[in-house]
Amino acid sequence: MKVSSVGAWVRRPAVLGVAAVLLAGAGGWSHQQARDLRDDVSARNAALTDNARTSEVKGEISDAVNTIFSYNYTDMGKTDRAARTLLTGRAVRQYDSLFDEVRKQAPQQRLVLTTTVTDSAVKTLEDDRARLLVFADQRNTRVSDGKTSYAAAMLAVDAVHQGGRWKISNINTFSS
Predict the structure, then answer these.
(1) Euclidean distance between the first and the last CA atom of the chain, given in angstroms as a whole number
(2) Between vectors from CA 34 to CA 30 and to CA 37, what angle results, nearest 5°?
(3) What is the pTM of this model?
């Protein structure tokens, strides 16, 4: 009986040592996993954590899209002036390219376009930059003959917070 109790007494420290090494390894692995989660892109994406800021960017960009993608042939300058305050950087050139033909045809055809954002989602929101997917309905009326057509629109926009407001900095209409 003495022999077996001595053997058990010798094995216990060995088993405890192995258990301690395994626990230390698991602890180190868990710590690294937690650090990776904090450093992950999703952890920096405020669209997932900051409801107020996400709501702010959605609201301001939805209003901007409604404004710059709506026009009345009687006052095309109003839309252009709004675009100058709601767009920045590359989006200014993109908008000019998109609306170049519209500026020519709208007065001749007496066109009125009304764009209404129906939904939007903020994909990323980091510091003063955001990327959104915007869905809108468009109603185009030709006053000369009273014909109205309807279309759905989807676009991705990048936005930057400048001068106390969100401005569109890039427009992707998925057309090319």
Answers:
(1) 86
(2) 140
(3) 0.76
CA distance 68 to 51: 26
Q: What angle do CA 154, 157, 162 make, to 5 degrees?
A: 150
Distance from C-alpha of 83 to C-alpha of 67, rounded to nearest angstrom: 8
Place of tokens 């989602």: 121
The token pair that represents 23 in the structure block: 């626990």
Residues 6+ apart with CB under 8 A from 76: 103, 106, 107
Closest to 68 (Cα-Cα) out of 81, 77, 58, 79 = 79
* pLDDT bracket for residue 5 (50, 70, 90): low
Cβ 38 vs Cβ 76: under 8 Å: no
